[in-house]
UniProtKB/TrEMBL annotation:
NCBIfam families: rpmF_bact. One of its GO terms (molecular function) is structural constituent of ribosome. It holds the Pfam family Ribosomal_L32p. It comes from the Bacteria. InterPro entries: Ribosomal_bL32 (IPR002677), Ribosomal_bL32_bact (IPR044957), Ribosomal_zn-bd (IPR011332). SUPFAM superfamilies: Zn-binding ribosomal proteins. Keywords: Ribonucleoprotein, Ribosomal protein. GO terms for cellular component: large ribosomal subunit. Signal peptide: none annotated. GO terms for biological process: translation. This is Large ribosomal subunit protein bL32. The keyword Calcium does not apply. Belongs to the bacterial ribosomal protein bL32 family.
């Protein structure tokens, strides 16, 4: 089994672990019904449509 020859310093260890927090910004797309920005593959919170079908009843 492979064993490290030298102790990994705290700085080197923390540099390696520091990339975890860099998360991608969620992508947004325009709703074809109302043009509002929404998350892809989700129901539009503004108009209630998903793939051209009204899923949620929204009062105008």
């Amino acid at each position: 089994m492979a064993v490290p020859k030298r102790k990994v310093s705290k700085a080197r260890r923390d540099k390696r672990r520091s990339n975890v927090w860099k998360l991608d910004v969620p992508a947004f797309s325009k709703c074809p019904q109302c043009g509002e920005l929404k998350a892809p593959h989700k129901v539009c919170t503004n108009c209630g449509y998903y793939k051209g079908v009204q899923v949620l009843k929204k009062e105008a």
